[in-house]
Write a structure and sequence with these properties.
With about 350 residues, the chain is an alpha/beta fold. The chain contains 14 helices and seven strands.
Length: about 350
């Protein structure tokens, strides 16, 4: 079976991302795919015949080999290798939950600390069968992640409108944000801009070692705010990965999850393998508290949108009621909940 050069390059990048390869390894394949899109097919074939593919900006030796093999009607060796090693299921179990999900409420683009343009995130979400994807780039205080100032967020909202206009019916890119929870529990963005969004994920990114009573007050205040729809990666822990490990924040989980249940704020089941947040014991507390949930990827690259498999396995194993997972809901119901 043959494959088109651009499709082969994109699929290689996707498989590398879902297997948690470094961004550096992936960028070459996405850059080459972008470069190829601007070149007529006839010219690509001419360059393959003449051996001049590498004269194209963004095409190097490895990506040129992929293109040459695809043009020759072959499945590129790199793609075949990755399909064998990384193309299978990410985890056993969770299919019943995964099949019920309609979208993802937490994703990042290259507007903040993601690795790909908005359009590439959307294309991959559609290929995965999503009906909607929330674009939730960071808020201003998280400067290390190139958080969006009010002016940049306002520009991004216009881009989202343009993307949705080009897509037509069948898929919706939701206007969103991952907004920092400040020390006093307030949110790090202009309230008038928060009013314009479809969904808001509120997360703690600073002073993660705050003492438990203060952290509890901070989180309870945040989840009770009308703008807060989802409490993101609530413990802030890191258990593996290139960033190292980090212990979970200390807080009164029963109090925080009771506030979430009372206010209708969803507790995020963060599916990133390095987070797996909340841990199993706290997720059980949230289920018992009657919370809603958002089963999200926190994807920073298109291939990471497939990480929902990890969260779905946990949700199934820990008996999270599917009807309480908000991104299993049809879009009109989701938007009515997020903006009552």
């Amino acid at each position: 079976m043959s494959t088109e050069p651009v499709d082969a390059l994109r699929r290689i990048a996707f498989l590398l991302e879902r297997s948690r390869a470094s961004t550096y390894r992936v960028k070459a394949y996405r850059a080459a795919a972008s470069a190829l899109l601007a070149v007529p097919e006839a010219e690509v074939r001419e360059r393959v015949a003449a051996g001049t593919l590498r004269e194209l900006p963004g095409v190097g030796s490895s990506t040129a080999t992929v293109i040459e093999q695809a043009v020759a009607g072959r499945v590129p060796d790199k793609l075949a290798e990755l399909e064998e090693s990384a193309g299978g299921p990410l985890v056993e179990g969770g299919q019943s939950v995964r099949s019920a999900l309609r979208g993802d409420l937490h994703s990042h683009s290259d507007w903040s600390d993601g690795g790909s343009p908005i359009e590439e995130m959307v294309a991959t979400a559609m290929e995965l069968g999503h009906e909607y994807l929330a674009l939730t780039d960071h808020s201003p205080r998280l400067t290390v992640a190139n958080g969006l100032s009010p002016a940049r967020l306002a520009r991004q909202l216009r881009v989202v409108d343009a993307v949705n206009t080009s897509l037509g019916d069948g898929f919706r890119l939701l206007k969103g944000i991952e907004v920092d929870i400040l020390d006093d529990g307030s949110l790090d963005q202009d309230p008038s801009l928060l009013d314009q969004l479809d969904v808001r994920v509120a997360s703690v990114h600073s002073k993660l070692r705050m003492d438990a009573p203060a952290m509890t007050r901070r989180m309870v205040a945040a989840v009770r705010l009308p703008h807060t729809n989802v409490l993101g990666h609530c413990t802030g822990r890191l258990i593996t990965g290139d960033r190292g490990t980090r212990p979970q924040s200390e807080f009164d989980a029963e109090a925080v999850f009771a506030a979430c249940a009372e206010s209708g704020t969803a507790v995020e089941i963060n599916s990133r393998p390095e987070r797996t947040d909340p841990p199993d014991d706290l997720l059980r507390v949230a289920v018992e508290a009657g919370c809603l949930f958002a089963l999200d990827t926190d994807a920073h690259a298109p291939g990471q949108l497939d990480f929902q498999a990890y969260g779905a396995e946990r949700a199934e194993r820990l008996e999270v009621p599917v009807e309480r997972i908000v991104n299993s809901w049809p879009l009109p119901e989701l938007l009515a909940w997020a903006n009552p």
